[in-house]
Amino acid sequence: MKASPNPHYRHRFLAEIISHAVLLYHAFSLSFFDVELILAERGAVVS
């Protein structure tokens, strides 16, 4: 039986980082730059 592929295999970042960035962006109405700065403070370098 073939194992199902990981749905996040094409993404550059972990699903947890992506979901956290989306949460910050929508819940707090932050700009992309603000989200980038917050994630950078936590050690995730994104662009």
Overview of the structural elements:
With 47 residues, the chain is mainly α. The chain has one domain. It has helices at residues 15-27, 32-41. α1 (15-27) crosses α2 (32-41). The mean pLDDT is 83.
Short key terms for the protein model shown above:
about 45 residues; mainly alpha; single chain; 2 helices
Tally of domains: 1
The average pLDDT score comes to: 83
Q: What structural class should be given to the helix and strand makeup?
A: mainly alpha
User: In percent, how helical is the residue content?
Assistant: 40-55%
How much strand content do the residues show?
under 5%
Structural shape: elongated
Radius of gyration: 13 Å
Number of strands: 0
Uncertain stretches:
none
Summarize the topology.
Blueprint: H1 15-27, H2 32-41
Helix pairs in contact: 1-2
Concise overview:
This protein has 47 residues and is an all-alpha fold.
